Amino acid sequence: MTFQHNQSASGTLEQMTRSAVPIPRSEQWTIKSRAGNHAYQIMVYQPAEAAPPSGYPVIYLLDANSVFGTMVEASRIQGRRPEKTGALPAIIVGIGYPTAAPFSPHRYYDFTPQATTEYTHKSDGTILPEQGGADAFLQFIEEELKPDMEQQFNIDRNRQAIFGHSLGGLFVLHTLFTKPDAFRYYIAGSPSLHWNQKVMLAEEQEFIAGLEQHPVNVQVWIGMGEQEKNHPARNNDKASALTERLTALKQPGLDIQYTEFEEENHVSVLPFLISRTIRLACSPEA
């Protein structure tokens, strides 16, 4: 893609040809899922640095249309000097949609465990898209996307992370509760815990009940902006209470942390969440 720019300097008209700025060492392609028959735009970054002997850590990133570039640049810079930054170079796998917009309406379907009767309209009165497809979306990640990535790239299967924000954060916790062995690191940014509350509580209780027979080895981090406390959904309180409940179990192999970022809101918190995610999921000491 080229852009034409006209500039007047000292009465002289000059033309400069501009080009789009690429994201280094990244590529994308569209695939259609067998589970759900929906099209996804897959974006992948591969580091220039050599992989560790066990392979690269990998971060699966939801809503990639909005934050893939942010995650890649943060990983690219931090991964150059792991001894200084505390972050190994990593493969970033962004799961997005074939749209130029930062968010696709289909996320309401992919990220919600069940269609809810509580939230059917947006704040402006428009009807929300279809919901309730989280299980099909998780099946796509586990049975289609992951095997494809592991075939194409040198990935450490023991160092897999998933990052989601807002409804994506809700999906991350749904995955933790229903398939805890899918990832080693679960990062739920500003999770929309006011959606599917009864369903999520039932999933949490079933997850807890199964820990004795099926112990886990996961690190869970929930991060939110301090200013989100002002929202009537009270998701900061819900996230803090969830962290306290799981921490009180004192279950070996279950490490859960909660962080609030001072003076940040639901959207401005994203760069902070992304930077911390890289250090959590890609630590050389893990």
Beta percentage is: 25-35%
Q: Into which percent range does the helicity of residues fall?
A: 25-40%
In which order are the strands of the major sheet placed? 3-4-6-5-7-8-9-10
What is the multimeric organization of the chains shown? Answer: single chain
Q: What are the secondary-structure elements, in order, as H or E?
A: EEEEEHHEHHEHEHEHEH
Number of helices: 8
Broad structural category:
alpha/beta
Given as residue ranges, the uncertain stretches (5+ residues, pLDDT < 50) are none
Mean pLDDT: 91
Q: What does the radius of gyration come to?
A: 20 Å
Question: Count of DSSP E strands?
Answer: 10
Q: Name the overall outline.
A: globular
Write the layout of secondary structure elements.
Elements lengths: L1 E8 L2 E8 L6 E7 L6 E7 L10 E7 L1 H15 L3 H4 L5 E6 L10 H5 L22 H19 L2 E11 L1 H12 L6 E5 L7 H13 L8 E8 L9 H13 L6 E8 L8 H12 L5
Parallel strand pairs: 5-6, 5-7, 7-8, 8-9, 9-10
Antiparallel strand pairs: 1-2, 3-4, 4-6
Describe this structure in words.
- The chain is an alpha/beta fold.
- The protein is 33% helix and 26% strand.
- The protein contains 8 helices and 10 strands.
- The protein has helices at residues 64-78, 82-85, 107-111, 134-152, 167-178, 197-209, 235-247, 270-281, and strands spanning 2-9, 12-19, 26-32, 39-45, 56-62, 91-96, 155-165, 185-189, 218-225, 254-261.
- It has an 8-stranded mixed β-sheet, sandwiched between helices.
- Helix 1 packs across helix 8 (270-281) and helix 5 (167-178) packs parallel to helix 6.
- The mean pLDDT is 91.
